[in-house]
Request: fold
Amino acid sequence: MPNTILVGAQWGDEGKGKIIDFLTDEAQIVVRSQGGNNAGHTIVIGGDKYVLHLIPSGILRKSKICVIGNGVVLDPVSLVGEIEGLRNRGVKVEKNLLISDAAHLVLPYHRALDEQREVLKGRNKIGTTKRGIGPAYADKASRTGLRTVDMLRADVFEEKLARRIKENNTILKSLGAKPLNAKKIIADQLAAAEVLRPFITNTAVYLHRALAAKKSMLFEGAQGTFLDIDHGTYPFVTSSNTTAGGACTGSGVPPHRIDTVLGVMKAYTTRVGEGPFATEDDSLGEMFHGMGREFGATTGRARRCGWFDAVSTRYSALLNGIDEIAITNLDGLDGLATIRVCVAYKLDGKTIDFPPTDSADLARCEPVYMEMPGWKTSTEKARKFTELPPKARDYVKKIAELTGTKLSIVSIGPARAQTIRL
Ligand code: GDP
Ligand code: IMO
Ligand code: MG
Reply:
């Protein structure tokens, strides 16, 4: 299998976890290179559901190596909980997990700051996952962050942590929040460091040795293109580079060692949190929520829903260099008589074919739709492309055509078997 970067081409929750799990059969190493436990990647195996937040989705396949790269921000206590949760379900988490020694830590004061800043923003809030992601990346950029390498020596870690808790308690108080209990944080973090220490190593060195040994790698993107700190709907974004380039900076694997970029897109669009969403349609949301789908895997929030947006996904294909696409959740549209696809935006009377940079402008864009006939049959049991109804085939082919990409996977249910490879 070629070294592949898998990216979310929309606003996250495209079904990346499911596709990673499917593809890991062929790859040897799965790498997370950005984001933190704001991610929630769902994998369904034989009726058992797993939601992974920090650990790469390859962990459920025996004999695969999972790497948490330097670009990830890692909440130690949460990661220990995730490891224990998997072990309790009989999943092996031992030498098959490697954690970069250069990954930054998400600490309780980051969570507290994330929450308090959202409260203070009021109506203008971002709608974050409140996992402390933004403040942790801010510390990284400000060069005041703590890293996994700091956890390797308990005395050094304790000293640095105590200093940062003190500094952040001053900030929290100034923002009107309660200061945190330093003693408890230090005890919790030292305990987490004990558990995580055996996993921590220089993963860039590991990955380069693996490249030399011709092992194949799958880079598991978290979030999605329009949550990217540079290319997304700023400020309604996350704080990392969710686009393909983030896989290289966040792992130490150079761009020329990447063979292909696979974009994952839902057959419609969803978004959690605030921010512009041109094709949002409340009645579509009601339909999906009524079917029990489109609730967040991390926060449980109902996702906002809308029609497939070919304007933004075409731009996403450019930004990421998407070679191939996986279209997921096609079955979600099974019951519809007519399906809409946004092919252009109208802004101030002009037709535009790419999303404007200013989120306020994007919020004013009117979608221009084309309509396609629905297939009104269940697709869930299809196992070959030819087993899909002709109108469903036309629909996914149209998406590939409009986005200028090659269709390589269609997903028609959450389970591994409900995946069609073209
Ligand atoms: P991720 O963050 O991109 O990994 O996606 P999430 O796991 O947050 O959300 C995707 C949801 O859709 C999960 O509940 C998956 O089990 C589910 N899912 C993925 N692909 C399909 C599909 O083709 N059909 C259906 N019905 N569900 C799917
Ligand atoms: P996966 O990997 C969907 C959204 C939040 C919010 C914004 C900023 O499962 O696709 P943050 O906590 O990162 O500061 O929140 O980003 N968000 C996601 N939305 N899927 C995700 O991850 C997300 N991770 C963050 O809802 O709008
Ligand atoms: Mg998710």
Notes: The chain has two domains: 1-102+202-422, 104-196. The longest strand covers residues 338-347. The two ends are 15 Å apart (CA to CA). The pocket of guanosine-5'-diphosphate (ligand 1) is lined by residues 8, 12-18, 40-42, 44, 297, 328-329, 331, 411-414 (CB under 6 Å).
